[in-house]
Specification:
Strand content: 15-25%
Helix content: 25-40%
Number of strands: 10
Distance between the termini: 57 Å
Number of helices: 11
Bound molecules: adenosine-5'-triphosphate, magnesium ion
Largest sheet: 6 strands, mixed
Radius of gyration: 21 Å
Low-confidence stretches: 1-37, 293-297
Length: about 300
């Protein structure tokens, strides 16, 4: 795109803008998440406690999530699942404990550094810009990245022009992966609920986060939409190696999608392991059904 002053100014400024952009990109790369050695935890919680008045939302929670893993967190209502996501995303400060993201540890995750740390999230309730097109909603997931100055943005030159091109390309890649081509230019607010949830997933993925926190991404969907969405979550992991924390109530779906499942109940972690192990764990069955269960009879959640 050429700015309102024509190509001359743009050409004159280009080398300087290019150099500045280069320096910033290098600094950005240095600042970005340092991943641990292959297979190590990319996210770890260490003895996290959180209370609201007399309510203990989380009581001494420790959790280690390996890079590239899909880790489900399940548990009855009020078990502390969203509280955990809010701690990892810096919305809540734990009363005690630490959060490790890559090689950095925090007593409170700095919410303003979340994108730079490579963490993105979706919310339990839809949080789209209803009046904006799908593609613009998805591009908004990159807003934090803008390095261009206001002058550059107004004139549409230098870094601003390049950022716009790169943002559209990144959005279109996610749109293709999540099969949103047909609704790319539709207003988000006019889409059926299931598609809006998919757009929200696309917005969280557009910045290629290392860690993606999904708080009930399948809630309120039809069985078919849930299956589709599960496929897209899997596709994101396959395509970008994203580590995914998935909160979900649909146990059948969770068991098919996750590598590991952590079970919370009243703020405590009562089980953590592969799906096949967790679903037949008597403690887990009790938490879900509220009664002792005879798993000898081939039971399981
Ligand atoms: N901001 C808050 N203020 C007061 N209490 C809160 C707050 N956030 C969470 N809680 C309380 O902490 C406990 C855990 O809530 P949380 O939202 O983490 O549960 P959840 O497992 O996500 O439940 P659900 O499945 O219903 O979404 C609940 O008792 C809840 O009422
Ligand atoms: Mg919740």
């Amino acid at each position: 795109m050429t700015g309102v002053l024509g190509g001359t100014l743009e050409r004159a400024l280009a080398p300087a803008l290019e150099r500045a952009g280069h320096r910033e990109a290098e600094a950005g790369a240095r600042r970005s998440l340092r991943l641990p050695a292959h297979g190590g935890p990319v996210l770890a919680l260490e003895d996290i406690t959180l209370s609201f008045g007399g309510v203990t939302a989380l009581a001494g929670i420790s959790l280690a999530v390996r890079a590239g893993e899909i880790r489900a967190i399940i548990g009855p209502n009020g078990a502390g699942k969203s509280s955990l996501v809010n701690i990892v995303s810096g919305a809540y400060r734990p009363d005690a404990g630490r959060v490790w993201i890559g090689e950095e540890s925090f007593s409170q995750v700095p919410a303003h550094r979340l994108a730079q740390l490579g963490v993105a999230r979706t919310f339990q309730n839809l949080a789209l810009f209803r009046g904006l097109d799908v593609v613009d909603n998805i591009v908004s997931g990159l807003a934090y990245r803008a390095r261009s100055t206001l002058v550059e943005q107004v004139l549409g030159i230098g870094r601003a022009a390049r950022e716009t091109r790169e943002a559209r390309a990144a959005a279109d890649e996610v749109i293709a992966t999540l099969r949103l081509e047909a609704v790319r230019d539709r207003r988000a607010g006019t889409l059926p609920y299931g598609l809006q949830k998919r757009v929200e997933l696309a917005r969280a993925l557009v910045a290629r986060p290392r860690i993606l926190l999904l708080d009930e991404p399948l809630a309120g969907m039809t069985a078919t939409e849930k299956q589709e969405m599960a496929g897209f979550i899997r596709a994101a992991r396959e395509r970008w190696g994203t580590t995914i924390i998935l909160i979900e109530h649909d146990i059948g779906l969770v068991m098919g999608l996750s590598d590991q499942v952590a079970v919370f109940d009243y703020g405590r972690k009562i089980a953590d392991g592969p799906p096949a192990e967790v679903r037949t764990d008597p403690v887990v069955i009790d938490a879900y059904l509220g009664i002792p269960h005879d798993i000898e009879a081939g039971g399981g959640i």
